[in-house]
Amino acid sequence: MSATTLKANPLHAPNASVRTSRGGFRLLPRSLFGRLMLILISGLVVAQIVSFGLVFYERTQSSLGMMIRYVGKDVASSVAILEQQPAQARPQWLQRLDRRNYRYTLGAVAPGGAIRSGVARQIANTITQALGADYQVQATQSGGDTSRLLLQTRLSDGAPLTLEFSLQPVPLSPWMVTALVMQLLLLAVCGWIAVRWVTRPLTRLAEAADTLGPDLTGPALSETGSLEVVRAARAFNSMQRRIVDHLKERMQILAAISHDLQTPITRMRLRADLLDDAELRDKLHGDLNAMQVLVQDGIAYARDGQGITEAACRIDLDALLDSLVHDYTSAGRPVRLSGSIQAPFTTRPNALRRIVVNLIDNALKFGLDAEVEARSAAGGVVIRVLDRGPGIPPSEMQAVLQPFYRIEGSRNRETGGSGLGLAIAQQLTNALGGMLTLTNRPGGGLEAQVFLRGHPVRRRQ
């Protein structure tokens, strides 16, 4: 089954989900705003992490340097104090000399293994240099606990002295993480405002394009903002004016030619009446009638292309369709009606009547009979015109909706009319904000479906 669908706004592309060439969904957001925010936030997070790492590393190195220099002087002072005390008084001084991360022990302790930490090695070297050549320092590190450093030496009287050093990481201020998170949030908010400010003109430009009517007229885009935004708005407004002027000129030319052709056609019909040859006279009348239909359809197409001036009103769709079908059946044409809306609907009745008439005429020309169906749908109403004709080749689905296009063969010039019926139906459907869909039916035939947006008002019981 093949089908062609015409949107109410031909400039607006559907916003369907996009998959990658491998079948998966894109990781990047589809909107420019989302992509810019993702790039900006990712950059800010990485920059904050790097900045935090550099600051923490610099602070750690600075604190370690100060601590190591302080430890060397403090240990040398503590050893000097113990040297001045008699042996029995030294234990009383140990608690006074202990610090938060190291303490003294009078006596030997089982040594550990070789030093594997660079910080421990710096501490051991600093303490050794501070004590001087008079003290032999043995530095080891616990095999199972790399944060425990043992420094063993002997006082001048030969008494063993052990310094047990606990290597603790530099404490992190609790407010630092909070400050960094608040800074990141502030930068994210500023980035959101900046990206929104930059992408808002693009959103307005897209909205202006979406609000263009079938005749491509719409309110002009505001020419305010930054230099680039003003230039884009002016270019869009200028483009819109040029397109509108071009369409008006094209429609005026078509209307003028079609209107001016009526006079010579009338004169030719009068002259044909004067012919003595009846067969030739009938052939000329047939050609003139075909030309007259073409001219009238051309005038109608040009008039509809200038926009609908008819005001919308609430109508009974069921009554409108029943009246149309009754007119055809009264004239002996095989047209049937099924389904119902059963609720008033707001639309432009004359434009809708012309749409349905063109679709029914098209079905009768090529399908010999026609069936009209009406029903409510989500967000609007649906009117379908069905026939059992030859249908339309899939390659011709889009072309048949163009003005003056006729398919040769089953829809030839003798039976195909002017080629404006479907084009006018499409043009009026777009003007009503609806959607025209052509679909080949299973088993043969064509389905022309008109979807009109709106909400039928249910009658009160």
Summary tags:
50% helix, disordered N terminus, ATP-binding, Helix Hairpins, six-stranded mixed sheet, 461 residues, Heat Shock Protein 90, alpha+beta, four-stranded antiparallel sheet
Your description of this structure?
By secondary structure, the protein is an alpha+beta fold. It has three domains: 27-206, no CATH class; 212-307, Signal transduction histidine kinase, dimerisation/phosphotransfer (DHp) domain (Helix Hairpins, Orthogonal Bundle); 310-453, Heat Shock Protein 90 (2-Layer Sandwich). Helix content is 50%, strand content 15%. The chain contains nine helices and twelve strands. It has helices at 32-84, 90-97, 118-131, 174-210, 227-273, 278-305, 317-330, 349-367, 421-431, and strands at residues 3-6, 102-106, 138-141, 148-154, 160-166, 313-316, 335-339, 344-347, 370-377, 380-386, 435-440, 446-453. The strands form three sheets. It has a six-stranded mixed beta sheet with strand order 1-11-12-10-9-7. Strands 2-5-4-3 form a four-stranded antiparallel beta sheet. A two-stranded antiparallel ribbon has the order 6-8. A hairpin with a 5-residue loop joins strand 11 and strand 12. Helix 8 packs antiparallel against helix 9. The longest helix has 53 residues, at 32-84. The protein is rod-shaped and about 155 Å long. The two termini are 42 Å apart. It catalyses: ATP + protein L-histidine = ADP + protein N-phospho-L-histidine. Residues 256-456 form the Histidine kinase domain. Keywords: ATP-binding, Cell inner membrane, Cell membrane, Kinase, Membrane, Nucleotide-binding, Phosphoprotein, Transferase, Transmembrane, Transmembrane helix, Two-component regulatory system.
